[in-house]
Amino acid sequence: MIEYIKKRKLFVMLIVFLFVLAPLSLIQKAETDKVAVVTAIGLDLQEENILLSANIVVPNSGASGGGGTDGTVKTVCVLGEDVSTAFTNLSILIGKMPGLAHCDAVVLNKELFKDNVTKYLDFFVRTNNLTSNANIIVADKEARSVLETSAEQKGVRAVSLSKILLVNNEYTLGEEANIDTFYEKYFTKPSASILPVLNEGDSKVAEAQTTGGDTEQNSGNNQQSGSNNQQSSGGQSTSSIGGSGGGKEQSASGRAEKIIKNNGQGVVVKNGQIKAVLDTNQMYDFNLINPNTRKGHIRVSGVTGEGFSDATLLFEIFDKRNKNTGMFLGDVPVFNFGLDLIVKLEEVVMDNISIDNMTVVKDYVVGNIRAELERQLSRQISVVVELAKDTNTDFLGVYNYFYKFYNKSWKKFLSGLDNPDDYLKHIVFTCDFDIEGKI
Amino acid sequence: MVRKINDFQCALLLCVATIGLNFLVFPALFAKYAYSDIYISVAIGLVIDFVLCSIVLRVMKNNPNVTFFQFVSRAMGKVVAVVLTMFMCIHLFIKGVLVVKEIHNYFNETLFNDIQWIIYVIPLLVFVGFIVLKNFRAYGRAMQFFVWLIVVAMVVSVVIPATQADFTNLLPLLENGSLGIWKGVFFCSFTFGDYLVLLTLMGRVEFRENSISKISKWLIITDVLIVGFCVVFSAIFGDTGLNHSLALSEVLLYTSINTLTGSINWINILFWLVILFLQVGLFFLSSAKLMREALNIKSKVVVMAIVVGLLLLTVSLLYLNLIRAINIVISLPFIITDLSIQLLLLVVYIWSSIKTGKSRKMSLVSVFNRSIVKYQLTGITGVTADQKYTSVKAGER
């Protein structure tokens, strides 16, 4: 027997392990019995307390209705004195520990930015529960209603809040606004960042009916990108547990449904407080100088030439390279926005369009594209720069640039100012363009 | 007759020991002192280590059949040899404990909310006990099996996050002066000192002509990858690096590629768990071999029982307290003691080598000239001279 064991040590060890560990695992509870899968978190302020909303996946055992489902998503709301207490109350309410490993979005009410939003984000930085890098989203109104609408409109397989923002990441922000990048910018001297805004609103296509487990998300007023709007069959969430009622207004009479609205807006945050709200146009202006984006659109209005008048030209940015650089001319810092663009004429809007003036416009664009675009681009960039100066928020990356590449000169410059925080007003901004066109 | 490992296996063992804690908790610790210049601190430490490894390799090659204990015993006496060997034993044991604590911490705090710690600690202890009974040759062969897995994991850990890193975060260079860099090297010196593993392998490596260059090349590649990882870590996290204690996992999480594919992070973590287990095995195997030699314990089972018992005791005392373990190894008294003894060890080693070298040269010259030799050739080098040289006994004229 001993000889047998000596010759087959590994095999014997394996058998011993199986006999020791297998019973241990049999008596353990399933993870889904102990942990609730949270896919999104929302924070609002309610009087002195924090209203925590959580989208929780409720697994289904079987498919019902078209397509089959993996589960439904329900929104649960609890109050707490702080975020940590709210999570404790949540676990008590649902009888499980909230698992944040699949949480990809933290939606924040604008009210939280009145003092300093990091007071409420601190929990998410310290907890080991949140292993993914969740996106930070600002709710135009209530975070709870955004979560409820999101839960109603998706099943487990459908697009998540963070994926709705993929277009923002490509076209405007150029990077994910997640907890890590927020804090990375927060701890720099300018402490400025831009966060995306989502809202919920009514869909105007009232005929959209939901049947069984399917949801149709229409694109009436929705400005989301088409590819992000695709929904596979998803479960329908019903009423939320322990919280406010859901926002879904589906009925046989075809009243409008609630949908998530992404208007491409953003908020400028400095030191954890909102300094300005950027509308869609301003976000597109910001896109031009954002080195992380490659695409975009440029609109030039009021173009008049021989044979046509008051035309609006829309250009698609085929490729964009930013060469934002700075230097010191004497003691004066100069920051230059350099843009290399390849643009393509996408659309011409004018009255009385004919085959003749279409050709005329084309010839005009070929000959004058540079001048028109440069004027337009300069106007757009100056809007963004003025906004940064007015709000004294350096989301342009000026401080970081000079600090990294001209450290001594920059420190000397700041020490020479009456108010070192007011440096933007003393910087000279320039821009130069290199534009190629494709007609 | 000691079963020897070849130079490639030696290189692998050295590289695995070098990786050690450099991808886990220590990047964040370096950042505490050096901020975004951690890669400079790490590079300095690795260069020092490389120089010491090169010296040790040369001495090892010149004395291929003696272990460190025998080597120092002959030159400086048994007491010195026992003290230094036990120091190495304890040093490597503590390193192994830190790696075990990292695994323990990772399973308990990051991966699972509620897990019985014996579920993974018991297999770990059994693994350690099993490895301690083996020899370096078996371990080296196992390492050869995993080598390409390790290389892929290291390259992926550096290359993929590098695509998302903002390297301007490394600027300005030496923003806080050079003091932080040297403080990082000093206070995090425990992550270095991998030449001690080489000393453990002394007398157990089959050297060929190009062995030293082969081992050095592998070591350089490993060092470059470690420094590359630290560069990427700094580029991604900048000054906030000290908040990211599990560097490897967090660096991979940061990249959006993982968000899109969903699986690279987990594959890499799996590879790294394999590497961690291999490191645990290496450190405790080395520690056990040194203990056995120093304390002259004949039975492998007794050594195994001691090592496993001590490990269980240490892990239990430091239950869920990785921070306490880290604070011990970066405390001033510990560092001063550790560095002082390492310095003493090196001095003794080099002195022993010089002493041995002089006596060997004299004996070879004497053999060629057929004159008196002071030491028996077989005593020091283990090489019998009966076939090549005329054997001359000590004191015979």
How would you briefly describe this protein structure?
Chain A has 439 residues and is of the alpha/beta class.
| Helical coverage of chain B, percent range | over 70%
Query: Which chains make the largest contact?
Result: A-B, 28 and 23 residues
Major sheet details of chain A: 10 strands, mixed
* Rounded Rg of chain A: 27 Å
Unreliable runs of chain A: 63-69, 206-255
Q: Specify the oligomeric state.
A: heterodimer
Number of domains of chain B: 1
Structural class of chain B: mainly alpha
CATH fold annotation of chain B: Amino acid/polyamine transporter I
Average the pLDDT over all residues of chain A and give the rounded result. 78
How far is it from the N-terminal to the C-terminal residue of chain B, by CA? 33 Å
Overall residue-averaged pLDDT value of chain B: 81
Assign the CATH superfamily of chain B: Amino acid/polyamine transporter I
Strand percent estimate of chain B: under 5%
Can you give a write-up of this model?
The complex is a heterodimer of chains A (439) and B (397). Chain A has 439 residues and is α/β, with parallel strands linked by helices. Chain A contains 13 helices and 15 strands. Chain A folds into 2 domains: 33-266, no CATH class; 289-438, 2-Layer Sandwich (GMP Synthetase, Chain A, domain 3). Helix content of chain A is 32%, strand content 30%. In chain A, strands 1, 2, 3, 4, 5, 6, 7, 8, 9 and 10 form a 10-stranded mixed sheet that branches. In chain A, strands 11, 12, 13, 14 and 15 form a 5-stranded mixed sheet that branches. Chain A starts with a helix and ends with a strand. Chain B is an all-alpha fold and 397 residues long. Chain B has one domain: Amino acid/polyamine transporter I, CATH 1.20.1740.10. Chain B is built from 17 helices and 2 strands.
